[in-house]
Amino acid sequence: MPYRAICVRRVKVKAISCDGFRPTPIPDRFFVVAELRHSSTNELVGVIDFLLDTGADRTTISVDDAERLGIYDLPLIGGCPPQARGIGGDTPLRYLQPVVLLFHSPEEQEPASWSAKNLAVLSPTPAQRQAGAFRGCFSLLGRDFLEHCHLDISKEEIRLHLNG
Amino acid sequence: MTTAIRRYITDRDWIDEHYGALADRYDGRYIAVSDGRVVADALSIAALKIELNRTALVPPEPPTIVYITKDSTAFLL
Questions:
Q1: Structural domain count, chain A
Q2: Is the CB of residue A35 less than 8 Å away from at least one CB of chain B?
């Protein structure tokens, strides 16, 4: 199958200031916007702005995006591995039933697509929700997606081509 | 480009362009943006959805919802 270019959005981030220290620069972040649709019905669930994350094993929907799109109201599957491990500790995961992600391809009219059989959804415990640690966190486009791609990374840009 | 993605990118570009002013006004809150204006704001997404429904401000297409903060955070994912 041919590789198809996917639009990647570059976002500048303000440097972090600490008292008594010079602001610490943060590299730009790169996002990919995708349309999420049910595989069986093709019904639109919504639009998600994914942070490209070459260190994430799995593509994962954030708490904010799951709440925004009503994903916690959909039938979710428990699965293995049941936890997402990050710097902040472990968070339970559940999985969406098969969905398709559609991406804008600048070279063609038709969007590029990826079928995700087990898209992970962060499902924090009530205590984790109460702590509000997930507010403002991003959904991640991880290596289960990126292994179908050709990826060129430089300081200035990320170029992404999806096989399919 | 699909209609939903085009709408999101239009709203997102507007948010990025006005982020400083939005952060001054809505720091620590979620906002719903549609066609270049903030149509609702709240401390949580659940409260924002209630506000959108209560005030019948839901546009024909779903608004873009983002969390606004003055804090700059480095993510270690």
A1: 1
A2: yes
